[in-house]
Specification:
The chain is α/β, with parallel strands linked by helices. It has a domain of about 200 residues: 3-Layer(aba) Sandwich (Rossmann fold), CATH 3.40.50. It contains eight helices and twelve strands. α1 packs across α6, α3 runs parallel beside α4 and α5 crosses α7. Bound molecules: NADP nicotinamide-adenine-dinucleotide phosphate.
């Protein structure tokens, strides 16, 4: 079983490579090997993928606010690149893992979204990710679309100053008081857990292709997540809950985009979000190993 990871140095790609390469032959491709916006990107990728059985696509345009301005680039990376990749892999019997997001939903449903709920994105990023999902499911029969949310991982997101947890810790050490939105709810997820789920699917030879929600169990607001992290670390900054209206951003955000992960639990049991955060803090050596 030969595996190739695209976007191997991103937040998720880093953990996927670290985990899978312990047991399986894995090729790690980064922007140095191919630029997903190049006209001839698939000609460039083809030789890398010839002897590959499984492709894991972690390439994406992930800056939700900037996507409102850079629509064409976001569409190229999140929709056209997966479309071309799925078209190329779909003509062989290769398996494609494609990563998507809770932001394909508006957050207006009022309960955690299941895989078969109808997507209705409210920002450019979500629309481009949905277009990528549709293309992958249409063109590559052997596909897994893993929808995840609120990712945090040791590498931090590519091109950003840090993930939400890292940012909250940094700001709480710099300031005595922080304002955090309490009316956007998600399922915070550790990239290592997504990587473990991918490994479980590959090793288990799972053949039930389709969409899976790959998120931690439970959900919380960004305020609750910040509060949990600071309490776990004993950092005493004041946290002030604020509404999204007080924090205007270029892109609209779903208010309740938690994903229901019961479908994947048949093959892989995702942890509670609090346990996922604890493991992350231990990996970052901010909590003692093995401690409670
Ligand atoms: N972050 C979240 O909270 C979140 C939430 C839900 C879903 N997701 C989804 O999860 C997946 C992984 O997210 P992440 O946080 O790991 O993102 P990330 O850290 O931003 O990683 C994106 C990867 O794409 C690569 N890339 C970007 N433009 C490229 C180009 N033109 N050519 C080649 N490679 C390019 C980046 O390479 P460089 O390092 O060279 O830029 C990086 O390796 C994405 O599909 C994202 O939509 C993320």
């Amino acid at each position: 079983m030969h595996i190739t990871v695209l976007g191997a140095d991103g937040q998720l790609g880093t953990d996927v490579i670290d985990l899978l390469s312990k047991a399986l032959p894995v090729k790690a491709l980064t922007r140095e090997d191919f630029d997903a916006t190049d006209r001839d990107v698939f000609g460039r990728l083809r030789p890398f993928l010839e002897d590959t059985d499984v492709v894991i696509n972690c390439v994406a345009y992930t800056d939700v606010d900037k996507a409102e301005q850079e629509k064409d680039l976001a569409y190229r990376l999140n929709a056209e690149f997966p479309e071309g990749l799925a078209g190329m892999l779909g003509t062989s019997d290769k398996i494609l893992f494609h990563i998507s997001t809770d932001y394909v939903f508006s957050g207006r449903l009022g309960r955690p979204y299941r895989e078969d709920d109808v997507p209705d994105p409210i920002n450019v990023y979500g629309k481009t990710k949905l277009a990528g999902e549709i293309a992958v499911s249409r063109l590559c029969p052997r596909h897994f679309i893993f929808r995840t949310a609120g990712l945090f991982g040791k590498a931090g997101p590519s091109g950003k100053a840090g993930n939400f947890i890292d940012t909250i810790i940094r700001l709480a050490r710099e300031r005595s008081s922080l304002r955090v939105v309490d009316d956007q709810v998600t399922s915070p997820t550790h990239t290592l857990d997504v990587a473990r789920a991918i490994r479980a699917f590959i090793e288990g030879g799972i053949g039930e292709y389709g969409i899976f929600n790959v998120v931690s169990k439970g959900y919380c607001s960004w305020y609750e997540l910040a509060d949990y992290v600071l309490r776990r670390l004993g950092i005493e900054a004041e946290l002030v809950p604020v509404s999204s209206d007080e924090f205007p951003r270029p892109a609209a955000r779903p208010r309740f985009s938690s994903l229901d992960n019961s479908k994947i639990s048949k093959w892989y049991n995702m942890p509670r979000w609090q346990d996922a955060v604890d493991e992350y803090l231990r990996i970052k050596m901010l909590l003692p190993k093995g401690g409670q």
